Amino acid sequence: MKARNILFLALLLAAVTSQAQRIKGSDTVLPIAQQTAERFMNQHPQARVTVTGGGTGVGISALLDNTTDIAMASRPIKFSEKMKVKAAKQEVDEVIVAYDALAVVVNPSNPVKQLTRQQLEDIFRGKITNWKQVGGDDRKIVVYSRETSSGTYEFFKESALKNKNYMPHSLSMPATGAIIQSVSQTKGAIGYVGLAYVSPRVKTLAISYDGKHYASPTVENATNKTYPIVRPLYYYYNTKNKAAVTPLLDFILSPEGQNIIKKSGYIPVK
After folding, report:
1. pLDDT (tens digit per residue) in 183-231
2. Residues 6 or more apart in contact with residue 193 via CB below 8 angstroms
């Protein structure tokens, strides 16, 4: 009888463990990952989902190390990372779970309302150093950026800087929340954050990539493509774990999951 009870407990533990999922990576994706995971667990009491940030690079590294089941990413997987996957004789699948507008933010006291892509490039590359050069006050520009492991850092560099290097003296922040806090406390500051992180503590700027048509970062403008700094957000997982992660992936892509994404300030896939 005891042996049968032990076997039953072992099978029960295996069933519960199979429902346990670890999600790690992009701070941009973090809010929707947390909210959809929470709703998923409410509907599936046997499921256990843990979600932690750290940046896209951290998440993909964790996936390669088998210390996470899903990597959240705000950029596509790099060629060098694909080579590591291949070297480890693994196979990784990609799923776009949402889209995000990247907002350029300044201190609320800053009178500047809009910038062109070229002006953004010149500011973040250190060629424009004073706000009076773009119609603002005579005040030094303080540039805040994300750290190099961040997918947001990579995407902004690719989109706004045309893959040119950031200025050497930009201040690297470990997380999006740190940029919000720093910009809110520094009058000459500028930074960039995912749209869902925007708060009254900072002011967003209208951006133009053609020098004529300016658009503010909103879900509506990102959806109708008038706002130019928009990117897909990804989940990556090892194909050998497909059966285990599919219920969670199906939920985030379901109408209910996509509605959570929309209410959170992101752009749904569907």
Report:
1. 999 999 999 999 989 999 999 999 999 999 999 999 999 999 999 999 9
2. 102, 103, 105, 152, 176, 179, 180, 202
Q: Round to whole Å and give the CA distance between 53 and 215.
A: 30
Q: Are 95 and 253 in contact (CB under 8 A)?
A: yes
Which residues, other chains included, contact 125 with Cβ-Cβ below 8 Å and sequence gap of 6+? Answer: 161, 164, 165, 166, 167
In whole angstroms, give the CA distance from residue 269 to residue 255: 10
pLDDT tens-digit map of 53-112: 999 999 999 999 999 999 999 999 999 999 999 998 999 999 999 999 999 999 999 999
CA distance 160 to 139: 23
Those residues with Cβ within 8 angstroms of residue 127's Cβ, 6 or more apart along the chain or in another chain: 121
pTM for the structure as a whole: 0.81
Instruction: Please state, in angstroms and rounded to a whole number, the distance separating the CA atoms of residues 72 and 52.
Output: 9
- Helix (H), strand (E) at residue 60: helix 56-64
Residue written as token pair 């210390």: 67
State the residue for tokens 């990372």: 81
- Domains, in order of start, for the chain: 2-99+233-263 (3.40.190.10), 100-223 (3.40.190.10)
| Chain CA centroid to CA 168, Å | 23
The confidence score (pLDDT) of residue 213 equals 95
Is the separation of the CB atoms in 195 and 219 below 8 Å?
Answer: yes
